[in-house]
Amino acid sequence: MDTGITEFLLVFQTVVQWIAIILSASTGVYDARRNGLDYFGALVIAVIVAVGGGTLRDILLGRYPLFWLQDPIYLISILVVGVIGILLVPISTGSYGSEKSAQTDLFNAVVRLMFGTSGSFALIDAIALGMWAYLGTYYALTSGIPPLVAPIMGVITASFGGVLRDVFFAKIPEIFRPGQFYAIASFAGAAAYTFCWNFMIPYPTGFLACIVITFVIRMISVRYNITSF
């Protein structure tokens, strides 16, 4: 492969991973605050959700040092997102997703814009899900993992951070229970990318296919409450 193209792809993967980390960290800190965690707990959950899946991916593929240890920009970004989330999202004293009536209209508007309604939360989560599915599958394929196995690595990368989050919340991980499509959406996107890779369909078709398919399946499931069984 041409050196210029190789360098571009490396930068591209880094940017995609960085965006996915920012999106995942924002959903993590939102989850933490709505479940009543303090500032330290929110930062821990933000880190876990943002790097959990990628860490397991790197361990399984033997990619060392781990990606977030190799480049400090990832942890710095998570901490910045975490601090912003802690300042904007109040701790919930009731059930998950409840709002504090004492907040001003302006404050609530900012919160809703950055983290807020369940719809925007699902939107951010779905975009991050597609990016992680792509990254996990890409790194698996470039590491020599067979195409039949590579999509599984995409699912692991996309979902394991959420599994760890739920373990810290002392509950059965959501992806293991009947619910709206999460692992299924990431698997579909990862399989689409693997198909494009296997048949050498020009870049970035595979990347776009993975992101779009994952996003559409996830959002349709959320919008119409289509669940696994």
Describe the structure.
The chain has 229 residues and is an all-alpha fold. It has one domain (3-223). Helix content is 72%, strand content 0%. It has nine helices and no strands. The protein has helices spanning 3-34, 39-61, 67-70, 73-88, 105-114, 118-142, 150-168, 183-198, 205-223. It is globular and about 50 Å long.
What's the arrangement of secondary structure elements?
Blueprint lengths: L2 H32 L4 H23 L5 H4 L2 H16 L16 H10 L3 H25 L7 H19 L14 H16 L6 H19 L6
Helix pairs in contact: 1-2, 1-4, 1-6, 2-4, 2-6, 2-7, 6-7, 6-8, 6-9, 7-8, 8-9
Could you list some keywords that capture this structure?
single chain; 229 residues; mainly alpha; globular
Q: Portion of residues in helices? A: over 70%
- Report the C-alpha radius of gyration, rounded: 18 Å
Q: What's the total number of strands?
A: 0
What would you call the shape?
Answer: globular
Gap from first CA to last CA: 45 Å
Order of helices and strands: HHHHHHHHH
Number of helices, counting only DSSP H or I runs of 4 residues or more: 9
Strand content: under 5%
Q: Mind summarizing the main beta sheet?
A: none
- Which residues sit in consecutive blocks of at least 5 with pLDDT less than 50? 95-111, 113-117
Give the count of structural domains.
Answer: 1
Q: What is the SS-derived class?
A: mainly alpha
Q: Give the integer mean of the pLDDT values.
A: 87
